[in-house]
Amino acid sequence: MLKGQVDTEDASETDLAKHDEEDYVEMKEQMYQDKLASLKRQLQQLQEGTLQEYQKRMKKLDQQYKERIRNAELFLQLETEQVERNYIKEKKAAVKEFEDKKVELKENLIAELEEKKKMIENEKLTMELTGDSMEVKPIMTRKLRRRPNDPVPIPDKRRKPAPAQLNYLLTDEQIMEDLRTLNKLKSPKRPASPSSPEHLPSTPAESPAQRFEARIEDGKLYYDKRWYHKSQAIYLESKENTKISCVISSVGANEIWVRKTSDSTKMRIYLGQLQRGLFVIRRRSAA
C-alpha cells in the first residue's frame, strides 16, 4: 500500500513539472506575440506619423531647422545693410569726385580763355604801338589791253593768304619793355625816292643780349645743348641772381612747368624767357 502511495506522489510531481513547462512555453510564446504585435503597431504609427518617439524627434529637428533659417536671415540682413552702406559711401564719393572734376574743368577752361583773351589784347596793343597792320596789301599788276580775238580772262579765285598770327610767350611787362626798346631804336620816317636805300628791306638789328637755344620736341626740352625731361631735378636761376631748386612737373608746347622743392608751388617758364636769358636752367642731382 505504501508503494502505491509513493508511485502516486511521483506521478503527481511529474505531471506538475510537465504542466509548468507547458505554461512556460505558452507564456514565452505569448510574450513573443505581444512584442511582435507592439512592433507592428509602432511601425504602423510611424508610417502614419503618429508615433510619439517620431513626433518628439521631428519636433527637435524642426526647431533646429527654424533656428538655422533664422540665423541665415539675420546674416543676410547684416550683409545687405553692409552692402547698402558701402553703396551709399561709394555713391557719395563718386558724386564728390564728379563735382570736383567739374569745377576743375571749368576753372581750367576759364583760365585758358582768359589767357587767349589776354594774348589778343596784347596783339592789339602791339599793333597800336608799332603802327603795324594785319591787312594784306593788294599786289599792283599791270593790265594790258585785250585784243578782240583774245578770250575773256578768268578772274583769279585763289584763296587769300591768311593774316599772320602772333604768338607771345612773354609776360605783359616783358612785352612792354621790348616795345619801348623798339620804339627807341626806331628812327623817324623821312620821305625818299623809290630807288633810295630806305625802301630796300632791312634786316633787324641783332639784340646785344645773350640768347640761348631752347626748343621743345617729343615732350622734352632742349636747352643750352642739353635735354631735359619731366620729373628731372634742376636749378632755376633768374636775372635777379636768385637760385631755386625745382623739379620739372610738365613740358608743354611752348612752355614748361616747374615745381619748387621748398614749398611745392608751381611756375610756368616760357621758351622765350629761356631764349632771352631771363631764366637759366642748370642740372642738379635728384638726391
From TrEMBL:
<keyword id="KW-0805">Transcription regulation</keyword>
<protein>
    <submittedName>
        <fullName>SDS3 homolog, SIN3A corepressor complex component</fullName>
    </submittedName>
</protein>
<feature type="coiled-coil region">
    <location>
        <begin position="29"/>
        <end position="130"/>
    </location>
</feature>
<keyword id="KW-0175">Coiled coil</keyword>
<keyword id="KW-0539">Nucleus</keyword>
<feature type="region of interest" description="Disordered">
    <location>
        <begin position="1"/>
        <end position="23"/>
    </location>
</feature>
<feature type="region of interest" description="Disordered">
    <location>
        <begin position="144"/>
        <end position="165"/>
    </location>
</feature>
<feature type="region of interest" description="Disordered">
    <location>
        <begin position="185"/>
        <end position="210"/>
    </location>
</feature>
<keyword id="KW-0678">Repressor</keyword>
<dbReference type="GO" id="GO:0005654">
    <property type="term" value="C:nucleoplasm"/>
</dbReference>
<dbReference type="GO" id="GO:0010468">
    <property type="term" value="P:regulation of gene expression"/>
</dbReference>
<keyword id="KW-0804">Transcription</keyword>
<dbReference type="InterPro" id="IPR013907">
    <property type="entry name" value="Sds3"/>
</dbReference>
<dbReference type="Pfam" id="PF08598">
    <property type="entry name" value="Sds3"/>
</dbReference>
